[in-house]
Amino acid sequence: MTNADALQGVEIAWVGLGRMGSAMASRLLASGVDLAVWNRTPERADALVARGARRLRSLGEAGACDVVFSMVLDDAALDSLHDGESGLFGAAHPGAGSARVWIDGSTVSPAASERAARAAAEAGAAFVAAPISGNPAVVEAGQAIFAISGDDAGLEVAEAIGLAIGRAVHRVGSRTEASVIKLCVNALLSVTMQSLAEVAVLADRAGVSRALLMEFLNDSAIGSPFTRYKTAPVVTLDFPPAFTPEGQRKDVRLALELARALEVPLPVLATTEVAYSSLVSGGLGEGKDFAALILEVARDAGHQLRPEELR
Ligand SMILES: NC(=O)c1ccc[n+]([C@@H]2O[C@H](COP(=O)([O-])OP(=O)(O)OC[C@H]3O[C@@H](n4cnc5c(N)ncnc54)[C@H](OP(=O)(O)O)[C@@H]3O)[C@@H](O)[C@H]2O)c1
């Protein structure tokens, strides 16, 4: 069976149209599926509705579609989707709770995924955790990847949706393994951003161009898609937000909470949490991408960075 077959005649309710949700739902709509959309702030659905998506007026209406795909900020937001009468499985809307499958792509704790899975099970629906790796630009380019884990009955449709949006889907288990993998990957990414900011400030203080540093670094063994994405902000000091410092700190904290619960010391990540907290509380990261961490590192060093041209 192809992806297109798996999604044939299936109405998908998309819940959560922030930066990531909008980019993902946009690709899904472009692939020709039958899409309905809901966002807490309704205006954020306007662009997709103008392109043919059906507007949903409530979470209950979303819960009455065949499949729900949610993409919201954090644990509290995910909890709110299945909370009470006005949630996905509440009785506030006729037909609410008849969804067969609920797939959640948000980066949340395994505990929040488990709570959502329980709520789905009580309503007779399968649940799949499907966190995504890639920022909105990566999604738009069709290069995002998913880790999926959950109930067998939901994996096929989750995989088909993942492949309609991105380039690969990794099946990693039958419970909330995907959430654990996503937190591990984001923990490494957060630490990498801090280290990148530190060496860029060091090179700059030594009188070496950050553009030259990044050009060499990206060509070396430590160069990666991530260091290439973050080259522009590190060099130009322009930080259009792909992911906010608050969001990145949220993921660091989720990984640290999991580590604490499992008695795994993560001293490097603990230090990184302090760095992101300073970036948030000091205001240097406001309205910016989390790559603005370089401004915090420079401030700690008492060093003035200047924008450079990209090479
Ligand atoms: N941005 C990235 O590069 C990236 C990459 C991979 C994964 N992620 C993950 O993707 C998820 C979304 O990130 P984002 O960058 O799209 O964030 P965002 O732009 O801030 O969007 C957050 C979304 O969550 C909704 N939301 C927040 N609190 C809610 C609540 N209590 N009830 C219902 N809806 C609520 C927002 O609705 P409103 O519009 O009403 O505020 C919005 O639709 C996060 O879990 C993030 O960790 C992000």
CATH superfamily of the largest domain: NAD(P)-binding Rossmann-like Domain
Mean pLDDT: 96
List the ions, cofactors and other small molecules found in this model. NADP nicotinamide-adenine-dinucleotide phosphate
| CATH-derived architecture of the largest domain | 3-Layer(aba) Sandwich
Uncertain spans? none
Q: Give the helix/strand class.
A: alpha/beta
Written as H for each helix and E for each strand, in order along the chain, the element string is HEHEHEHEHEHEEHEHEHHHHHHH
Q: Which geometry do the CA atoms define?
A: elongated
Distance between the termini: 46 Å
Described by strand count, sense and barrel closure, the largest sheet is: 9 strands, mixed
Which radius of gyration do the C-alpha atoms yield? 20 Å
Strand content: 5-15%
Enumerate how many helices there are, as a single number. Answer: 15
User: How is the CATH topology of the largest domain named?
Assistant: Rossmann fold
What is the helix fraction of residues, given as a range?
A: 40-55%
CATH top level class name of the largest domain: Alpha Beta
* Oligomerization status of the protein chains: single chain
Could you say how many structural domains there are in total?
Answer: 2
The number of E-state strands comes to 9
Q: In words, what does this structure look like?
A:
- It is an enzyme of class 1 (oxidoreductase).
- Keywords: NAD, Oxidoreductase.
- Belongs to the HIBADH-related family.
- The chain has 311 residues and is an alpha/beta fold.
- It folds into two domains: 173 residues, 3-Layer(aba) Sandwich (Rossmann fold), CATH 3.40.50; 120 residues, N-(1-d-carboxylethyl)-l-norvaline Dehydrogenase, domain 2, CATH 1.10.1040.10.
- The chain is built from 15 helices and nine strands.
- Strands 1, 2, 3, 4, 5, 6, 7, 8 and 9 form a nine-stranded mixed beta sheet that branches.
- Helix 9 crosses helix 13 and helix 13 packs antiparallel against helix 14.
- It is elongated.
- The model has no long low-confidence stretch (mean pLDDT 96).
- The structure holds NADP nicotinamide-adenine-dinucleotide phosphate (NAP).
